[in-house]
Amino acid sequence: MNRLFTIKTRSALRRGAATSAIMLAAMAGSSWGQVEPTAPGQEDASEAAEPAVADIVVTGSRITRSGFTAPTPTTVVGLADIQKAAPANIADFVNQMPQVSGSSTTRTGNNNTSTGTNGLNTLNLRSLGSNRTLVLLDGRRVVASAVNSAVDVNNLPSALVERVDIVTGGASAAYGSDAVAGVVNFVLQKKFTGIKGSLSGGITDRGDDENMTGYLAFGTPFADGRGHVLLSVEGAYQAGINSIDRSKRSWFNQTNLLSNPDYTPTNGQPQRIIASNVNYSNVAKGGVITTTGLANTQFGEGGVPMPFQLGSPISSPLMVGGNSWYEGDVNALDSELKRWAAFGRVSYDLTDDVTLIAEGSYGYSRTNNLSAYQRYQGNLTMSASNPFLDATIRDRAAQQGIGSFRYGYSTYDLGRPENEATRKTYRAVLGLEGTVLGDWRWDAYYQYGQTNTRSVLYNTTNVARFAEAIDAVRDANGRIVCRSTLAAPGNGCVPLNIFGYGVADPAAVAYVKGTAWQQLSLKQNVAAASISGEPFDLWAGPVSLAVGAEYRKEEVSGSGDDVSAVNGFYTGNFKGTNGSYDVKEAYAEIVVPLAENMPLLRSLELNAAGRYTDYSTSGSVETWKLGLSWKPINDLRLRGVLSRDIRAANLGELFTAGQTGAVDVLDPANGLASVRTTRVTIGNPQLRPEKADTVSVGAVYSPSWLPQFTTSIDYYSIKLKDAIASLGAQDLVDRCYRGEQALCSNVERDADGNITRIITRPVNVAELKTRGVDVEASFRQPLADIAANLGGTVTLRVLGSHIARRTTINGGVRTEAAGQNTGDAPKWRWFATLGYDDEKLSGLVTLRTISGGVYDNSWQSGVDIDDNRIKGAAYVDLAGVYRFQTGASKQLELFGKIENLFDKDPPVVAAIGGASLQTNPTLYDTIGRAYRIGVRFRY
To answer: Which pLDDT score is estimated for 57?
Structure first.
């Protein structure tokens, strides 16, 4: 595969990273800093901000008015914050915010071979799912990057982002469907003037996952200032990590969750145990016989038979110790990624009151990663007379009258499957905006977006051909052929030797292996218009009003390969997904000042909004918001919001045609036996929109006696009715067993009660509840205020998010997910920065923490599991910027970063099955210490 890094480049990166580490360490001895979140019109430490404007559109509201503060909690991340943290991309930085948890990145989901979502960088507020987080670009929707409605943030023009607004509260009344958990709005520098660029490279402490990122942006006015043009292009590459080298990452020690074979209801032992050095009991590298008098005979290099050592205890298909074969270490830790994007924007004042706007963008990404082997866990039936079988074993079988036996095979000779996902995203906007009737603002636009995806699974096993190829016999001439060839000469079958490794004929491997693929085209059409202004004044000030209407159509079309259409591959089996829906909406929002400059009523504002939405698939629904912002004194602002929010099913939830993949589950109905079965993912066109009732109450305190300090705390509660849930395979099995009968139809069993298939289809569960608390505090101290001979500014900022409950209620059964660190909802996440800034130097120390949790809230240590605890994690990052003096209109900066400074290993999260990581990459860092160094310029 083509690589951007040669050996010389890797050496240079290592030397540069080491230099960066020394530089940063020296800076740490000085001081560190971060300015307050950059707001529009505020000067940035490293880049001049745009000219200040009188009116600001606040994300979470459609109202445009100077001084208006929406009652919905909003965290603002400015350009200075992002640049000083020196992330590989902007999504990585936003995903570190505590309110964002469980997002998909290139480091998550890499053991999946059938989802088609590998390589996406998405955002997930409140760990409620990226499909409940609305991502906007300058207040407008962005076409999805996959059928699950997720937006790949890497496609956004990060080179021109001025700030990121994170609205943590229901915003459906303002922005429509999907804003149940909140909104993340990327606001652009629409008047940027000049040229700026950046180039950076990074590498891990282990010398892998090399990466490079660069961008170039240009902006200039034209036509005597009536017009303005913006252009940007950016690209990135990361090499990925396709397996775990245990000499580099010794934390991997084959830790699994096993059913306890010694458990009885009366002997006081736990039902489940956590053990290390776990191996397969029915799979070997070169294959193993698992039944009859030949059992525990394995085949080594060249097909040589040898004993298979059993471990203890045995919890089939796994065991502790014994013969060494395990596949968790052959999962990718990070995907290979190549991407680039281009963006252009032109605005032109047609008259003093009307401006024409045109935008266009293109994004390309390709992701690759390897998956674990497509093994057979003792479920192959092989003939004892197979001519590939060692002669001594055939003789023993004949002596014992054995005609066939069960066999476990790793498919080592066949190689690992390779995922490749290619996405091309197009977006075009044409709009008009202006003023009318004095100071009323209006805008109207049409937007078209399209994402073309191609998901490919190379080197996947053709089930029918594999079955034919391993059924080998000798023909009348003594040649080894497929049994099927005797009846159908010339059928092309090539016999495959699976007894040992290094024995398979490449022609046979080519015969049994194939390529599964799917091509999809996602299209989005949006037409919208709005107007806002101040229709009249009240005793406390002007009333603000915004009204608008929107039409949106979402559609998907596509196809897959012929073998996948009949589920002919071991895994992959992509299907063409086809369907569409449209949405018609109208909304209104109002801000009413109720009091101003009165005792205990320095300010009191009512903010209300309503939206009517009509879905072509599920009918009409109404959403609303009622908010209050009250300043009893100048130092304190209290805020509260009640809202009804909605989310309709997305294209994937409605129309997915039926993708299949292999999955490992523990079956509580059969003594927690580990089962490898088929998972089928399909859509459900009967889904109803989910409705959320959201409550948010909080306070912002900015003491006049300490103007450097500000803090806020907000309580939230979200209750979703008819919540659309796509449960994982293990969840479906467990919750059916616990009594949720509505889910049991998704777990199919044979006459003996063994799981044969698990169907994961989205359903409307009765209720989903979550509640918690967000806290934020910042302290900014110019050192000159302390001593005249000191310079620079020290800034401390702390953000925290607590999930107290995340409860699903279905069929009378309650399932609590908060604090289950096997998922994506830890009880606490913290993000704290300590920084220093002056004219030449910026430094930043970041602390990121994730609280400890449990495997399952319904389990008790010593009863259901030997130890139910999962450790938390704390990571320290170090970043710095040095600014060269190049003149008033020119800027040149050198920046560097060390992530995971103390090289903390990920906490153990025991795996289920032998092909899973023993940690949770959704929460924890699996890469280790990494370095980044780069340069930025502007003039």
So the answer is: 57
CA 554 – CA 148 distance, rounded (Å): 12
Using omega within 30 degrees of 0 as the cis cutoff, is the peptide bond preceding 317 cis?
yes
User: From the CB of residue 870, how many other CB atoms can be counted at a distance below 10 Å?
Assistant: 25
Name every residue whose Cβ is closer than 8 Å to that of residue 620 and which is 6 or more positions away in sequence.
612, 613, 614
- CA nearest 20: which of 163, 143, 202? 202
Residue 928 is encoded by which pair of tokens? 């280790």
**Whole-angstrom Cα distance, residue 625 to residue 377?**
54
For the cut 70, the answer to whether the pLDDT of residue 473 exceeds it is yes
Nearest-angstrom CA–CA distance, 292 and 305: 16
**CA of 557: how far to CAs of 312, 367, 681, 723, in Å?**
52, 22, 17, 26
Cβ neighbours of residue 598 under 8 Å, at least 6 residues apart?
Answer: none
For residue 310, the one-letter residue type is: L
Q: Distance of alpha carbon 492 from its chain centroid, rounded? A: 43
CB 204 within 8 A of CB 928: yes
pTM assigned to the model: 0.88
Q: State residue 67's pLDDT score.
A: 60
Rounded to whole angstroms, how far apart are CA atoms 746 and 724? 15
* Burial annotation 748-784 (CB, 10 A radius, 16+ → b, else e): eeeeeeebeebbbbbbbbbebbbbbebbbbbebbebe
Q: What is the pLDDT of residues 401-431, one digit of tens each?
A: 999 999 999 999 999 999 999 999 999 999 9
Query: Given pLDDT bands bounded at 50, 70 and 90, which one contains residue 14?
Result: very low
Residue 500 pLDDT > 50: yes
- Is residue 136 pLDDT above 50, yes or no? yes
- Asked whether residue 34 carries a pLDDT value surpassing 60, the answer given is no
Task: Return the number of other C-beta atoms located less than 10 Å from residue 330's C-beta.
Answer: 16
pLDDT score recorded for residue 62: 81
Amino acid at 384: A
Rounded to whole angstroms, how far apart are CA atoms 483 and 474?
Answer: 8
- Which phi-psi region, left, alpha or beta, contains residue 837 (left: φ > 0; alpha: ψ -120 to 50)? beta
Pairwise CA distance, residues 813 & 809, whole Å: 6
pLDDT in tens, 838-878: 989 999 999 999 999 999 999 999 999 999 999 999 999 99
| Other residues' Cβ atoms within 10 Å of the Cβ of residue 340 | 16
What's the 3-state SS for 184-218? EEEEECCCCCEEEEEEEEEEECCCCCCEEEEEEEE
Cβ contact 491:484 at 8 Å: yes
The residues facing 482 across adjacent strands are 472
Question: What pLDDT band is residue 114 in, cutting at 50, 70 and 90?
Answer: low
Cα distances from 589 to residues 60, 143, 334, in angstroms, run 11, 25, 44
Give the Å distances, CA to CA, from 229 to 160, 336, 711, 795. Answer: 12, 34, 39, 35
Asked whether the bond before 313 is cis by omega within 30 degrees of 0, the reply is yes
Distances (CA, A) of 776 to 75, 544, 773: 9, 29, 10
**pLDDT, position 58:** 55
Q: Which pLDDT score is estimated for 50?
A: 44
Q: What are 593's strand-pairing partners? A: 605
pLDDT at 456: 95
**Alpha-helical runs (H) found in 384-499:** 391-400, 463-470, 483-487
Q: What is the mean pLDDT of the chain?
A: 90
Q: Rounded to 10 degrees, what is the CA torsion of 721, 724, 730, 731?
A: 0
DSSP 653-722: HHH---EEEEEEEEEGGGTTEEEEEEEEE---TTPPPEEEEEEEEEEEE--TTSTTEEEEEEEEEEEEEE
Spatial CA neighbour of 709 closest among 635, 638, 777 = 777
